[in-house]
Amino acid sequence: MSKSWEQLEHYQPTVLKMIGNSIQKGRVSHAYLFEGSRGTGKREVSILFAKSLFCLNRSDYKPCNDCSNCRRISSGNHPDIHIVEPDGLSIKKGQIQALQEEFSKTGVESNKKLYIIDHADKMTTNAANSLLKFLEEPGKQTVAILLTEQVHRMLNTILSRCQVLPFKPLSPHVIAGRLQENGFNATVAHLVAHVTNNLEDATDLCKDDSFAQSRKIVLQLYEVLINRPGNALFFIQDKWLTHFKEKEELFLGLDLLLLVYKDLLFIQLGDEDKVIYSDIIQELKQQALITSGKRVCDQIEAILEAKKRLNTNMNPHLLMEQLVFKLQEGLKLV
Question: Which UniProt keywords are present, listed alphabetically (predicted)?
Protein backbone atom coordinates (compact mmCIF):
# COMPACT_ATOMS: atom_id res chain seq x y z
CA MET A 1 0.00 0.00 0.00
CA SER A 2 1.32 3.45 -0.93
CA LYS A 3 2.31 5.67 1.94
CA SER A 4 0.79 9.09 2.43
CA TRP A 5 2.65 12.37 2.61
CA GLU A 6 2.12 12.44 6.39
CA GLN A 7 3.61 8.97 6.86
CA LEU A 8 6.75 9.71 4.87
CA GLU A 9 7.05 13.14 6.46
CA HIS A 10 7.38 11.33 9.78
CA TYR A 11 10.44 9.47 8.42
CA GLN A 12 12.12 12.27 6.43
CA PRO A 13 10.68 15.62 7.59
CA THR A 14 13.41 17.82 6.10
CA VAL A 15 13.26 16.21 2.66
CA LEU A 16 9.46 16.35 2.51
CA LYS A 17 9.44 19.98 3.63
CA MET A 18 11.88 20.95 0.86
CA ILE A 19 9.90 19.08 -1.78
CA GLY A 20 6.62 20.56 -0.53
CA ASN A 21 8.04 24.08 -0.66
CA SER A 22 9.34 23.54 -4.21
CA ILE A 23 5.95 22.35 -5.43
CA GLN A 24 4.05 25.05 -3.56
CA LYS A 25 6.22 27.85 -4.98
CA GLY A 26 6.36 26.38 -8.49
CA ARG A 27 10.13 26.00 -8.30
CA VAL A 28 10.56 22.31 -9.01
CA SER A 29 14.11 21.60 -10.18
CA HIS A 30 14.78 19.68 -13.36
CA ALA A 31 16.93 17.12 -11.49
CA TYR A 32 17.15 15.79 -7.93
CA LEU A 33 19.52 13.36 -6.27
CA PHE A 34 18.16 11.46 -3.27
CA GLU A 35 21.10 10.06 -1.33
CA GLY A 36 21.10 7.94 1.81
CA SER A 37 21.42 4.40 3.09
CA ARG A 38 19.09 1.57 2.07
CA GLY A 39 15.73 1.56 3.77
CA THR A 40 15.48 5.32 4.36
CA GLY A 41 12.54 5.82 2.00
CA LYS A 42 14.22 7.25 -1.12
CA ARG A 43 12.18 5.24 -3.58
CA GLU A 44 8.93 5.79 -1.71
CA VAL A 45 9.50 9.55 -1.59
CA SER A 46 10.34 9.63 -5.31
CA ILE A 47 7.02 7.92 -6.09
CA LEU A 48 5.20 10.34 -3.79
CA PHE A 49 6.94 13.26 -5.53
CA ALA A 50 5.77 11.92 -8.88
CA LYS A 51 2.22 11.72 -7.60
CA SER A 52 2.36 15.33 -6.41
CA LEU A 53 3.41 16.47 -9.88
CA PHE A 54 0.78 14.45 -11.75
CA CYS A 55 -2.12 14.29 -9.27
CA LEU A 56 -5.47 15.42 -10.62
CA ASN A 57 -6.85 16.39 -7.20
CA ARG A 58 -3.78 17.69 -5.39
CA SER A 59 -4.37 19.49 -2.09
CA ASP A 60 -1.76 22.23 -1.97
CA TYR A 61 1.38 20.11 -2.55
CA LYS A 62 0.02 16.77 -1.31
CA PRO A 63 -1.30 14.15 -3.76
CA CYS A 64 -4.71 12.62 -3.18
CA ASN A 65 -3.39 9.04 -3.64
CA ASP A 66 -6.77 8.15 -5.15
CA CYS A 67 -7.15 9.75 -8.60
CA SER A 68 -6.42 7.79 -11.77
CA ASN A 69 -2.91 9.24 -12.06
CA CYS A 70 -2.02 8.46 -8.44
CA ARG A 71 -3.33 4.91 -8.79
CA ARG A 72 -1.42 4.30 -12.02
CA ILE A 73 1.78 5.66 -10.49
CA SER A 74 1.31 3.32 -7.50
CA SER A 75 0.96 0.36 -9.85
CA GLY A 76 3.85 1.49 -12.08
CA ASN A 77 1.64 2.01 -15.13
CA HIS A 78 1.72 5.75 -15.81
CA PRO A 79 2.92 6.33 -19.41
CA ASP A 80 4.83 9.54 -18.64
CA ILE A 81 6.81 8.18 -15.68
CA HIS A 82 9.76 5.89 -16.32
CA ILE A 83 11.91 3.99 -13.83
CA VAL A 84 15.40 2.80 -14.77
CA GLU A 85 17.05 0.09 -12.67
CA PRO A 86 20.31 -1.85 -13.02
CA ASP A 87 20.29 -4.47 -15.75
CA GLY A 88 22.24 -7.10 -13.87
CA LEU A 89 25.04 -5.39 -11.97
CA SER A 90 24.95 -2.04 -13.75
CA ILE A 91 22.87 0.53 -15.60
CA LYS A 92 24.09 0.51 -19.18
CA LYS A 93 24.42 3.19 -21.82
CA GLY A 94 21.68 1.60 -23.90
CA GLN A 95 19.19 2.01 -21.04
CA ILE A 96 19.91 5.75 -20.80
CA GLN A 97 19.73 6.13 -24.59
CA ALA A 98 16.37 4.35 -24.62
CA LEU A 99 15.19 6.73 -21.92
CA GLN A 100 16.36 9.75 -23.95
CA GLU A 101 14.57 8.43 -27.02
CA GLU A 102 11.38 7.95 -25.06
CA PHE A 103 11.59 11.46 -23.64
CA SER A 104 12.13 13.00 -27.05
CA LYS A 105 8.53 12.11 -27.80
CA THR A 106 5.57 14.21 -26.72
CA GLY A 107 4.03 13.20 -23.41
CA VAL A 108 1.23 10.70 -23.78
CA GLU A 109 -1.20 12.63 -21.58
CA SER A 110 0.54 15.98 -21.00
CA ASN A 111 3.86 17.68 -21.64
CA LYS A 112 5.13 16.59 -18.23
CA LYS A 113 7.56 13.70 -17.95
CA LEU A 114 9.45 12.26 -15.01
CA TYR A 115 12.09 9.60 -14.76
CA ILE A 116 13.60 7.86 -11.74
CA ILE A 117 17.02 6.20 -11.90
CA ASP A 118 17.36 3.77 -9.01
CA HIS A 119 20.92 2.88 -7.88
CA ALA A 120 22.24 5.69 -10.06
CA ASP A 121 25.75 5.01 -8.75
CA LYS A 122 25.70 1.74 -10.70
CA MET A 123 25.71 3.49 -14.08
CA THR A 124 28.63 2.54 -16.29
CA THR A 125 30.94 5.38 -17.31
CA ASN A 126 29.32 5.52 -20.74
CA ALA A 127 25.84 5.52 -19.20
CA ALA A 128 26.78 8.32 -16.80
CA ASN A 129 28.22 10.43 -19.62
CA SER A 130 25.10 9.83 -21.68
CA LEU A 131 22.92 10.92 -18.74
CA LEU A 132 25.08 14.01 -18.27
CA LYS A 133 24.16 15.22 -21.75
CA PHE A 134 20.52 14.57 -20.93
CA LEU A 135 20.79 16.63 -17.72
CA GLU A 136 22.53 19.50 -19.52
CA GLU A 137 19.61 19.94 -21.92
CA PRO A 138 16.50 19.09 -19.87
CA GLY A 139 13.04 19.29 -21.37
CA LYS A 140 10.94 22.19 -20.14
CA GLN A 141 8.67 20.00 -18.01
CA THR A 142 11.00 17.06 -17.49
CA VAL A 143 12.00 16.06 -13.95
CA ALA A 144 14.76 13.59 -13.12
CA ILE A 145 15.13 11.85 -9.75
CA LEU A 146 18.32 9.91 -9.13
CA LEU A 147 18.55 7.55 -6.15
CA THR A 148 21.82 6.38 -4.62
CA GLU A 149 23.23 4.77 -1.50
CA GLN A 150 26.78 5.68 -2.52
CA VAL A 151 26.89 9.34 -3.49
CA HIS A 152 30.72 9.27 -3.52
CA ARG A 153 30.56 7.07 -6.62
CA MET A 154 28.61 9.64 -8.62
CA LEU A 155 30.31 11.90 -11.15
CA ASN A 156 30.83 15.40 -9.79
CA THR A 157 29.49 16.79 -13.05
CA ILE A 158 26.21 14.96 -12.45
CA LEU A 159 26.04 16.05 -8.81
CA SER A 160 26.52 19.68 -9.81
CA ARG A 161 23.43 19.50 -12.03
CA CYS A 162 21.16 18.03 -9.36
CA GLN A 163 19.59 19.34 -6.20
CA VAL A 164 20.96 16.89 -3.63
CA LEU A 165 18.58 15.86 -0.85
CA PRO A 166 20.19 13.75 1.90
CA PHE A 167 18.02 11.11 3.55
CA LYS A 168 18.87 10.62 7.22
CA PRO A 169 18.95 7.17 8.86
CA LEU A 170 15.66 6.40 10.56
CA SER A 171 15.60 6.81 14.34
CA PRO A 172 15.06 3.74 16.56
CA HIS A 173 11.76 5.28 17.69
CA VAL A 174 10.48 5.51 14.11
CA ILE A 175 11.63 1.99 13.19
CA ALA A 176 10.17 0.44 16.35
CA GLY A 177 6.87 2.22 15.74
CA ARG A 178 6.71 1.01 12.15
CA LEU A 179 7.52 -2.56 13.15
CA GLN A 180 4.76 -2.53 15.74
CA GLU A 181 2.34 -1.11 13.15
CA ASN A 182 3.21 -4.16 11.05
CA GLY A 183 2.25 -6.47 13.91
CA PHE A 184 5.60 -7.31 15.47
CA ASN A 185 6.04 -7.71 19.23
CA ALA A 186 6.96 -4.43 20.97
CA THR A 187 9.90 -5.91 22.90
CA VAL A 188 11.44 -7.43 19.79
CA ALA A 189 10.69 -4.31 17.73
CA HIS A 190 12.55 -2.03 20.13
CA LEU A 191 15.52 -4.38 20.27
CA VAL A 192 15.75 -4.71 16.49
CA ALA A 193 15.42 -0.94 16.09
CA HIS A 194 18.62 -0.50 18.11
CA VAL A 195 20.75 -2.89 16.06
CA THR A 196 19.88 -1.50 12.62
CA ASN A 197 18.61 1.83 11.26
CA ASN A 198 17.42 0.15 8.08
CA LEU A 199 13.69 -0.56 8.06
CA GLU A 200 13.99 -3.38 5.52
CA ASP A 201 16.70 -5.13 7.53
CA ALA A 202 14.73 -4.55 10.73
CA THR A 203 11.66 -6.22 9.22
CA ASP A 204 13.75 -9.18 8.07
CA LEU A 205 15.27 -9.58 11.54
CA CYS A 206 11.84 -9.59 13.17
CA LYS A 207 10.79 -12.41 10.86
CA ASP A 208 14.00 -14.37 11.38
CA ASP A 209 13.81 -17.18 13.95
CA SER A 210 17.59 -17.00 14.20
CA PHE A 211 17.36 -13.48 15.63
CA ALA A 212 15.09 -14.67 18.43
CA GLN A 213 17.64 -17.38 19.16
CA SER A 214 20.45 -14.78 19.11
CA ARG A 215 18.62 -12.72 21.72
CA LYS A 216 18.10 -15.82 23.86
CA ILE A 217 21.78 -16.79 23.75
CA VAL A 218 22.93 -13.26 24.59
CA LEU A 219 20.69 -13.15 27.67
CA GLN A 220 21.85 -16.62 28.65
CA LEU A 221 25.47 -15.48 28.48
CA TYR A 222 24.65 -12.48 30.65
CA GLU A 223 22.94 -14.75 33.20
CA VAL A 224 25.93 -17.11 33.22
CA LEU A 225 28.37 -14.23 33.70
CA ILE A 226 26.36 -13.02 36.71
CA ASN A 227 25.31 -16.25 38.39
CA ARG A 228 27.64 -18.99 37.13
CA PRO A 229 30.88 -17.26 36.08
CA GLY A 230 32.84 -20.51 36.20
CA ASN A 231 30.71 -21.83 33.32
CA ALA A 232 31.18 -18.79 31.07
CA LEU A 233 34.05 -20.16 28.95
CA PHE A 234 32.22 -23.45 28.41
CA PHE A 235 29.10 -21.49 27.40
CA ILE A 236 31.12 -19.52 24.84
CA GLN A 237 32.44 -22.73 23.32
CA ASP A 238 29.22 -24.72 23.50
CA LYS A 239 26.53 -22.13 22.70
CA TRP A 240 27.91 -18.76 21.58
CA LEU A 241 30.41 -19.78 18.91
CA THR A 242 28.15 -22.50 17.51
CA HIS A 243 25.43 -19.90 16.91
CA PHE A 244 27.42 -16.77 16.03
CA LYS A 245 29.66 -18.33 13.38
CA GLU A 246 30.22 -15.63 10.77
CA LYS A 247 31.75 -12.21 11.43
CA GLU A 248 28.45 -10.43 10.73
CA GLU A 249 26.69 -12.72 13.21
CA LEU A 250 29.37 -12.06 15.83
CA PHE A 251 28.89 -8.33 15.40
CA LEU A 252 25.17 -8.80 15.98
CA GLY A 253 25.85 -10.83 19.12
CA LEU A 254 28.17 -8.18 20.51
CA ASP A 255 25.66 -5.43 19.68
CA LEU A 256 22.92 -7.30 21.53
CA LEU A 257 25.22 -7.86 24.50
CA LEU A 258 26.23 -4.21 24.50
CA LEU A 259 22.58 -3.19 24.85
CA VAL A 260 22.28 -5.27 28.04
CA TYR A 261 25.05 -3.30 29.72
CA LYS A 262 23.69 -0.03 28.38
CA ASP A 263 20.38 -0.95 30.02
CA LEU A 264 22.20 -1.39 33.33
CA LEU A 265 23.69 2.07 32.95
CA PHE A 266 20.32 3.63 32.07
CA ILE A 267 18.80 2.09 35.21
CA GLN A 268 21.63 3.46 37.35
CA LEU A 269 21.11 6.90 35.81
CA GLY A 270 17.37 6.77 36.45
CA ASP A 271 16.47 6.54 32.74
CA GLU A 272 14.40 3.38 32.92
CA ASP A 273 12.25 4.50 29.98
CA LYS A 274 15.29 3.94 27.75
CA VAL A 275 15.73 0.28 28.74
CA ILE A 276 15.59 -2.04 25.71
CA TYR A 277 15.34 -5.43 27.46
CA SER A 278 12.22 -4.36 29.30
CA ASP A 279 11.07 -7.95 29.84
CA ILE A 280 14.02 -8.59 32.20
CA ILE A 281 14.08 -5.15 33.82
CA GLN A 282 13.62 -6.55 37.34
CA GLU A 283 16.74 -8.72 37.02
CA LEU A 284 18.64 -5.76 35.56
CA LYS A 285 17.52 -3.54 38.45
CA GLN A 286 18.83 -6.05 40.97
CA GLN A 287 22.21 -6.17 39.25
CA ALA A 288 22.33 -2.38 38.87
CA LEU A 289 22.06 -2.06 42.65
CA ILE A 290 25.10 -4.20 43.38
CA THR A 291 27.51 -3.00 40.70
CA SER A 292 29.17 0.38 40.27
CA GLY A 293 28.63 2.78 37.41
CA LYS A 294 32.37 2.68 36.70
CA ARG A 295 32.33 -1.08 36.37
CA VAL A 296 29.39 -0.97 33.93
CA CYS A 297 31.20 1.69 31.87
CA ASP A 298 34.32 -0.50 31.80
CA GLN A 299 32.22 -3.46 30.65
CA ILE A 300 30.67 -1.37 27.88
CA GLU A 301 34.13 -0.22 26.81
CA ALA A 302 35.32 -3.86 26.79
CA ILE A 303 32.55 -4.85 24.37
CA LEU A 304 33.26 -1.85 22.11
CA GLU A 305 36.94 -2.81 22.08
CA ALA A 306 36.02 -6.40 21.19
CA LYS A 307 34.02 -5.10 18.21
CA LYS A 308 37.07 -3.16 17.02
CA ARG A 309 39.26 -6.24 17.36
CA LEU A 310 36.75 -8.32 15.42
CA ASN A 311 37.37 -5.97 12.50
CA THR A 312 41.08 -6.93 12.60
CA ASN A 313 40.17 -10.58 11.97
CA MET A 314 41.19 -11.64 15.47
CA ASN A 315 40.37 -15.27 16.27
CA PRO A 316 36.72 -15.25 17.49
CA HIS A 317 37.35 -17.89 20.17
CA LEU A 318 40.25 -15.96 21.68
CA LEU A 319 38.35 -12.69 21.33
CA MET A 320 35.35 -13.98 23.27
CA GLU A 321 37.50 -15.62 25.94
CA GLN A 322 39.27 -12.32 26.59
CA LEU A 323 35.97 -10.45 26.60
CA VAL A 324 34.47 -12.86 29.13
CA PHE A 325 37.39 -12.32 31.49
CA LYS A 326 37.09 -8.55 31.21
CA LEU A 327 33.33 -8.56 31.68
CA GLN A 328 33.77 -10.59 34.84
CA GLU A 329 36.51 -8.31 36.11
CA GLY A 330 34.99 -5.08 34.84
CA LEU A 331 38.36 -4.09 33.37
CA LYS A 332 39.39 -2.82 29.95
CA LEU A 333 40.80 -5.14 27.34
CA VAL A 334 44.60 -5.03 27.21
Answer: DNA replication, DNA-directed DNA polymerase, Nucleotidyltransferase, Transferase
